[in-house]
Write a sequence for this structure.
C-alpha cells in the first residue's frame, strides 16, 4: 500500500514533520513518498494530482496561509477519486472547514496516532474528524524518515540539504502567548529521550555531513535538567548547534553549559520592551528578564538573536518607543533582531478569537487578499520583489501594519513603527555587513528612500522590483538578503560557528 505526503505551501527546506509521519507509516508497513512545493520548483494543482497517481492515500499537511490553493488541490484530488486525509496547524484550528473542503479525514493535533488508525483501517478508513484527548508519549516515536524526501529539491550548491539541519529534542511549550498558535501541542511540553536525539544527530552528521544543527523546539530550556543532560551528551560529538528559548527560562549556569557543549547562538522571543504589552500578550516574562537573559547569553559568549513583535491592537506610539529603548539597551548584546514580527492573527491563537469580529477579519484566510499571508510577506512569495519593498526586506517588514491588514492603526502609530524599522535596520546591518561601513550606510539610505517611495506611491517600487527580479533571477530564487542572513546565522553546510 502506498501513501503520498503532500506539503503544498511553498518552502525552501524539507519539512521534517513529513519525515516524522512517514516513519510511522513505514512502521505500519506502508510505502511512502512526498510531493513538496518548493520555491526551487513551484508546483501547480495538476502537478499534485499527477504525482498522486498510483497512491492509495494522499496525506496533506496544512498551515493557514495558503488555504485557497490547498482547497483547490483537495478538490482536484477528490474529483480524481483519491482518498485524502489532512492534518497540521490549520486543520487543528479549523477542522470543520477542512472537512467541508472535501477532505475525507481530518486529524487534529499530533498526527501520529490518528495516522496509524487510518492506515490500519484502510480501505475502510474512519471518515470525519479524529481527535486524541491525550498527548502521545514522544519516547514511542520512531526516528524521522528523511528518505521520504527527494533531496535534490532542497540541496544547495555546496551540498547542504536544507531542513536536515533542523532537529527536535522536544515538542510543545507550556506558555500561553496570545499571538501563538499552540493548539497542536496544547501547552504541554514533552521531551524526546536524549539518547534518541543524540543518535539522530550522529546519523545526520555521518550520513549527510551536517555540522551545524538548529534545535527547532519551541522552547529548548523548559526542562532545565533535560537541557543539561543534552549538553552533557552532545559535547563529545564536537558539533555546533543553536536553540530557542524564553527569557524567563535560562540562567547563567545553563547558558554556560550550553556554550561549553557547542551551542553558538540562542534566539529569544523577547517580543516587547513594554511591560504593559508583555502582560497583555501573556508572554510570562518581565522586561527585566528580557534584558537579563540576552545579557547573560552574550556574556557567556553566545551570539544572540531576538524576536520582537509589533502591531498589537492596544499599542500606541508609547509602546513602540519602549520597543526602541529595548533595542538600544541590547544594542551590543543582540546580533540580529528579527526582520519580521508584525502581528498575524493565526486562527488557533487567542488574539484571533478575541479580535476577529471587532476588526472584521473573521475567516480572513478564505479571502484571496490574504493568501500567502504569513509573517514576512516576501518570504512566502514566488517573486519576493513584486510583493515587498527594499526596506521591508533589508530593515523590517511592517507591511501588515502600514496597510492595516488585520487591525487599524493611527498615523502616529505607523510613524513610530517606521522609526523602529530604521532602528532595527541600523542595528542589523552591523551584523550583516561587518567592517563595511559604507555598505551599511548605503543600505540604510536606500531603505529610507524605499520607505518614502512606498508612502507616496505604494506599488511603484514593487512593480519595478518585480520586473527586475523576473529578468535577472533564475527560476524562483530567493531574495539575496535572505540568503545572506541565513549564511551569517550558520544555515550553510560548513559553518565554523564564529564571525
Ligand atoms: C520549525 C518551524 C518552522 C521552520 C520549518 C517549517 C516546516 N514547514 O518544516 C521554518 C523556519 C522554515 C518555518 C517557517 C514558517 N513558519 Co513555522 N514553525 C516552525 C515550528 C517552530 C515547528 C514546526 C514543526 O515541525 N513542529 C513539529 C511537528 C511535530 O509539529 P507539526 O508540524 O504541527 O506536525 C504535527 C501535527 O500538526 C500533525 N500534522 C501535521 N501535518 C500533518 C499531515 C497529516 C496528513 C497528518 C495526519 C497530521 C499532520 O502531526 C504532526 C506530528 O505530530 C512551528 C511551531 C510548532 N510548535 O509547531 C512553527 C509554525 C508551524 N510556523 C508557523 C508559521 C506562520 C510559519 C511561516 C509562515 C512564518 C513566515 N513566513 O515567516 C513560515 C512558513 C514556511 C512553510 N511554508 O512551511 C506557524 C503556523 C501557524 C498557522 N496557523 O499556520 C507556527 C505554528 C508557529 C506559531 N506558533 O504560530 N517554520
Ligand atoms: S510564543 Fe513561544 S513561548 Fe509563547 S506560547 Fe508560543 S512557543 Fe511558547
Amino acid at each position: 500500500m502506498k501513501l503520498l505526503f503532500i506539503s503544498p505551501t511553498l518552502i525552501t527546506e524539507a519539512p521534517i514533520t513529513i519525515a516524522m509521519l512517514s516513519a510511522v507509516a513505514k512502521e505500519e508497513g506502508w510505502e511512502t513518498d512526498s510531493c513538496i512545493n518548493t520555491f526551487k520548483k513551484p508546483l501547480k494543482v495538476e502537478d499534485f494530482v499527477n504525482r498522486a497517481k498510483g497512491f492509495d492515500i494522499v496525506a496533506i499537511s496544512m498551515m493557514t496561509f495558503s488555504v485557497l490553493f490547498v482547497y483547490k488541490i483537495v478538490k482536484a484530488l477528490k474529483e480524481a477519486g483519491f482518498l485524502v486525509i489532512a492534518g497540521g496547524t490549520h486543520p487543528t484550528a479549523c477542522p470543520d472547514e477542512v472537512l467541508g473542503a472535501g477532505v475525507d479525514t481530518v486529524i487534529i493535533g499530533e498526527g501520529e496516532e490518528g495516522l496509524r488508525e487510518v492506515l490500519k483501517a484502510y480501505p475502510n478508513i474512519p471518515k470525519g474528524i479524529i481527535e486524541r484527548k491525550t498527548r502521545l508519549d514522544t519516547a514511542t516515536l520512531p526516528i524521522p524518515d528523511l528518505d521520504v524526501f527527494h533531496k535534490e529539491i532542497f540541496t544547495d550548491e555546496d551540498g547542504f540539504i536544507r531542513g536536515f539541519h533542523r532537529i527536535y529534542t522536544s515538542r510543545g511549550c507550556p506558555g500561553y502567548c496570545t499571538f501563538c498558535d499552540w493548539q497542536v501541542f496544547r501547552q504541554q511540553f514533552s521531551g524526546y529521550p536524549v539518547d534518541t536525539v543524540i543518535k539522530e544527530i550522529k546519523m545526520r552528521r555521518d550520513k549527510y555531513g551536517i555540522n551545524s544543527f538548529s534545535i527547532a523546539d519551541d522552547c529548548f530550556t523548559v526542562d532545565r535538567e533535560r537541557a543539561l543532560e543534552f549538553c552533557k551528551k552532545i559535547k563529545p560529538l564536537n558539533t555546533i548547534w543553536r536553540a530557542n528559548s524564553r527569557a524567563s527560562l535560562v540562567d547563567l549556569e545553563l547558558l554556560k553549559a550550553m556554550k561549553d557543549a557547542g551551542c553558538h547562538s540562542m534566539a529569544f522571543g523577547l517580543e516587547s520592551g513594554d511591560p504593559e504589552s508583555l502582560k497583555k500578550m501573556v508572554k510570562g516574562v518581565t522586561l527585566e528578564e528580557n534584558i537579563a537573559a540576552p545579557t547573560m547569553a552574550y556574556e557567556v559568549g553566545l551570539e544572540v538573536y531576538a524576536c520582537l513583535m509589533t502591531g498589537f491592537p492596544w499599542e500606541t506610539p508609547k509602546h513602540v518607543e519602549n520597543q526602541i529603548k529595548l533595542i538600544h539597551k541590547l544594542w551590543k548584546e543582540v546580533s540580529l533582531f528579527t526582520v519580521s514580527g508584525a502581528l498575524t492573527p493565526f486562527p488557533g491563537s487567542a488574539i484571533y478569537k478575541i479580535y476577529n469580529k471587532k476588526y472584521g477579519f473573521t475567516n480572513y484566510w478564505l479571502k484571496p487578499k490574504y493568501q500567502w499571508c504569513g509573517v514576512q510577506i516576501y518570504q512566502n512569495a514566488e517573486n519576493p520583489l513584486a510583493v515587498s519593498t527594499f526596506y521591508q526586506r533589508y530593515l523590517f517588514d511592517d507591511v501588515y501594519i502600514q496597510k492595516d491588514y488585520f487591525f487599524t492603526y493611527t498615523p502616529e502609530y505607523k510613524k513610530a513603527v517606521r522609526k523602529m524599522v530604521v532602528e532595527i535596520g541600523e542595528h542589523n546591518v552591523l551584523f550583516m555587513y561587518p567592517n563595511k561601513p559604507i555598505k551599511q550606510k548605503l543600505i540604510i539610505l536606500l531603505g529610507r528612500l524605499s520607505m518614502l517611495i512606498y508612502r507616496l506611491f505604494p506599488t511603484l517600487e514593487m512593480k519595478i522590483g518585480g520586473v527586475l527580479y523576473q529578468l535577472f533571477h533564475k527560476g524562483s530564487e530567493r531574495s539575496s538578503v535572505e540568503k545572506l542572513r541565513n549564511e551569517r546565522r550558520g544555515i550553510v553546510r560548513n559553518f565554523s560557528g564564529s564571525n
Remarks:
- The mean pLDDT is 92.
